[in-house]
Specification:
Layout (H helix, E strand, L loop, with lengths): L1 H16 L7 E4 L2 E4 L1 E4 L15 H8 L2 H13 L4 E4 L3 H9 L4 E6 L3 H4 L5 H10 L4 E4 L1 H9 L3 H13 L3 E6 L3 H8 L6 E5 L35 H8 L6 E4 L9 H10 L4 E5 L5 H12 L2 H4 L7
Parallel strand pairs: 3-10, 4-5, 5-6, 6-7, 7-8, 8-9, 9-10
Antiparallel strand pairs: 1-2
Helix pairs in contact: 1-4, 6-8, 7-9, 11-12
């Protein structure tokens, strides 16, 4: 009883504190989504911190459940209405704080199951049962399935999500994933595709890049770049009207929000999924608002979703 009353009070307080001027939104299907989406990698220690091997552990220590809930509450107060789901987070958040944050589930498999896709339908159904508004297959899985020609796994995933009247997406690090899927007639409701420039010191040199290197879990994957061929991605996305959620737009903290947000939005991304800690939320939202208010961004060449 006490917990339900506390949740109700938290919900009232959240509504009262919500930002007066909402963050711009767009639509994917019937779902209205804020242009800035709260990513979840930092909550679970996904730091991609190059040589600083302690950072992941530091994030896991900092991001207690209450701190994560605080961060999501700040997101709602500042106009972010969508998060990337992981480990039933949205369910726990709504129960504890009474928030209305909607979630897109990132469906991911254990590494031993990725090649075969053995648990794909089970994991997808679990995500659906959590009350999400949509789901997408993680880029690591989609990259491998496209590379190995297992497009039927992506097709089954899209079919199950759509059967439940949810929006369905395909994640990707490699530009060949959206290119191959679209050419094969696998047209998702949205692409969840990396986009960032390479003007930062730790970016992998161009001469060392090759297709499907990102998240390949091999000796040449140095976890320092997530969009190897941005120009090719940008040019292809101009040819299709599928909504595009850009991610890794800050190259895991190597690019400033001012630079990363502008680059992604001006080059065609409709929404940005950005992992953020509580003390970054307000700043990130303000920067996103400023970028989105620029007439050059509003009138970019790729139509907005």
């Amino acid at each position: 009883m006490r917990s339900s009353v506390a949740a109700s009070i938290a919900a009232v307080n959240l509504q009262a504190r919500t930002a007066a001027s909402p963050l711009p939104t767009g639509r994917i299907g019937r779902v209205e989504i804020s242009r800035l989406i709260c990513g979840s990698n930092p909550f679970y220690g996904g730091a991609h911190s190059r040589d600083l091997i302690y950072v992941g552990k530091l994030l896991r220590q900092y991001c207690t459940q209450e701190k994560i809930f605080d961060t999501l509450e700040l997101c709602e107060q500042n106009g972010i209405n969508t998060m990337i789901e992981g480990e039933s987070l949205s369910v726990r958040y709504r129960k504890a704080r009474g928030g209305k944050m909607q979630a897109l589930a990132m469906v991911m498999l254990e590494r031993k199951d990725v090649e075969t896709g053995r648990t794909l339908m089970e994991k997808t159904q679990q995500a659906i049962d959590n009350g999400v508004v949509g789901a997408f297959i993680r880029g690591a899985e989609a990259d491998r399935w496209v590379q190995s020609g297992r497009l039927e796994l992506i097709e089954k995933f899209l079919a199950l999500v759509r059967k439940n009247r949810l929006i369905a997406g395909i994640g990707a690090h490699d530009r060949q994933v959206p290119i191959t899927c679209e050419k094969a007639g696998l047209k998702p409701d949205f692409h969840f595709k990396t986009i960032h420039h390479d003007r930062y010191y730790s970016a992998l040199p161009r001469e060392k890049r090759r297709s499907f290197l990102v998240d390949s879990w091999g000796p040449n994957d140095h976890d320092c770049i997530w969009e190897q061929y941005p120009e090719e991605t940008i040019e292809f996305m101009k040819t299709i009207g599928t909504p595009w959620i850009g991610f890794k737009v800050l190259a895991a903290g190597a690019i400033s929000p001012q630079s990363g947000f502008r680059y992604a939005f001006e080059n065609g991304a409709d929404f940005l999924a950005v992992g953020m800690l509580d003390f970054f939320v307000k700043e990130n939202v303000e920067i996103a608002r400023q970028v989105l208010s620029d007439p050059e961004i509003q009138n970019r060449s790729r139509p907005w979703a």
